[in-house]
Amino acid sequence: MQRQITMKKIDTLYLVDDDDIFQLLASEVINSTNLVNKIKVFSNGQEAIKFLESVRDEPDKLPEVIFLDLFMPVLDGWGFLEKYVQLKSRLNKKIIIYIVSSSIDPIDIQRAKSISEVTDYIIKPITREKFLASIKEMF
Amino acid sequence: MGQTYVTTNLLSMERLVNTVQKLSLASNIESVMQIVRSVARELTGADGATFVLRDGNMCYYADEDAISPLWKGSRFPMKICISGWVMLNRKAAVIPDIYKDERIPADAYRPTFVKSLAMVPIRTMDPIGAIGNYWADIHLPTEEEVGLLQALADITTVSIENINIRNKLEEKLSERELMLSQLEKQKEQLEEFTHIISHNLRAPLSNLLLLDDMIANSSSVEQKLLYIEKQKQVVDSLHSTFDELVDAAQIKKDFNIEKEYVDLEEGLIKAIGLLQGEILKSNASISYDFSLAKSIYYPKKYFDSILINLLSNSIRYSSPKRNPVIHIKSWKQDGWTYLEAEDNGLGIDLKQHGENIFKLHKTFHGHPKAKGFGLFITKTQVEAQGGSIKVESEVDRGSKFIVQLCKDK
Fold it and tell me: What is the pTM of this model?
């Protein structure tokens, strides 16, 4: 319990992923840690960008953390990051972005890590242990 | 006399220089022979000239230029032939009366006009052939004539060696190019394979792993049952992905799939029949023009599948603002038959999706029925037949798929 007290809680986390099973499982994993107040789910990059734009002046609606999948319809993770770079300076909050992907392709991993907006690359499945480990690094 | 000598000499030199120029442009042995045989005659004022190539232990009379036929196309053993003697001894032979020289097989010369000759080796160090000059009367070729002939032979040596080097280089280059394009193809296939493993198989697998973990850690039986139900869902989708991959692998393996003459119009009418429900519902109008290429020699199964995939895509991704208008046409270009399907639908942002458009399970419009299998399998089928597929598109204007189907035999 000591650990949880010293650890800062995340108010809002965005989950951007088109896989509905993953959405459900990741939400359960994250909720089970009691470290996140709200999880907001988007099915592709386009939905997430639109929402970010609409709440860009409302810090309580903006997330601390985004879990971003790479391969999604309409606007994929790469496309989201491109738009995010343009939007970033107008957002009223510092946001940490994690890529959460099933891709183990070194080309994808390399590319993700070369983008300065990306903090880390988490390979699915995102288990409780993996989630806790990344949250720990975050603060 | 001195004056004449100088003039002849100058004229001959000019001829030799011209020959060097001409030979430097020759790209194969045939054109070298053609240049050399006529110059050889002109240089010495002979009645005939031959171009002989060494072919193992034989002398091959490859080319000639003479007042009447000599031995063009014949082969003689080196030991009984004067060109053989020249090549074996690596020096010129000058024979003012052939019937008085024991190196000459008189019988071979009797049907010809030849009374005297001069023969020089090509590449003196290790002869690859010989150039012969022939006269119809008893004639003692001068030292100058033989010298000119030898000069011509030396020039010929250089140009033949150049051609050999050039041919070898070209051969190596085209081998390299072939290897490179094969490597490029293999690299592409490997990338495609990695992509499929990474995205199409690992994603459901990671869900299964997570579910497994959650089942193990959950204390409620009810919860466990719920997770097991989810697991079944994932297994089913993994199963259908596997089936799709097996289909694709089968196409890649099927080099010898049966081909037949497929009538494009018949094929389209059949495809329209199969898609009737969707066409009526969407109010689509379909037109076609196959006048420039009416039929193809192609696996019928693939052609039907390609057409159905292109048509149903055009209908599925039509714009809600207008009725779908689809035009299908065919034509020929550089021996290839092309098929094109153009629509006025939603279009695709190629800047964003261009590299993914033909990949497995990639969808672009968030359409509920989109599975991202049609274009993947279409590309696989088209490429298995040696063709290619590309797309031109503009968002909210429409898309145009251009299929390079097959090459004429």
Answer: 0.60
Predicted confidence band of residue A112 (pLDDT cuts 50, 70, 90): very high
Residues of A with CB below 8 A from B203's CB? 19, 22, 71, 102, 124
What single letter denotes the amino acid at residue A114?
A: S
Residue B364 is nearest to which of A74, A104, A105, comparing CB atoms? A74
The ipTM of this complex is 0.82
B109-148 CB burial, b ≥16 within 10 A, e <16: beebbbbbbbbbbbbbeebbbbbbbbbbeebebeeebbeb
Amino acid of residue B104 = I
Task: Please tell me what DSSP assigns to residue A125.
Answer: P
Separation between Cα atoms, residue B300 and residue B306, nearest integer Å: 10
> Which residues in chain B have their CB less than 8 angstroms from residue A74's CB?
364-366
pLDDT of B5 higher than 90? no
Which residue, B390, B409, B407, is CA-closest to B399? B390
Residue B155 pLDDT > 50: yes
| Confidence band for B364, pLDDT divided at 50, 70 and 90 | low
Cross-strand bridge partners of residue B75: B60
H/E/C letters for each residue in B5-18? HHHHHHHHHHHHHH
Of B202, B207, B365, the CB nearest to A104: B202
Query: What CA–CA distance (Å, rounded) separates B150 from B152?
Result: 5
- Chain B contact for A133 (CB, 8 A cutoff): no
State both tokens at A41.
């789910």
* A and B: number of Cβ contacts within 8 A: 66
Q: Using the 8-state DSSP alphabet, how is residue B100 labeled?
A: G
- Give the tokens for residue A77: 């993770």
Residue with tokens 């020699």: B297
Q: Which residues of A105-139 are buried (b: 16+ CB within 10 A; e: fewer)?
A: beebbebbeeeeebbebbbbbbbbebbeebbeeee
Q: Crossing angle for the helix pair B221-253 and A20-32, nearest 10 degrees? A: 140
**Six-digit token string for B325:** 């208008």
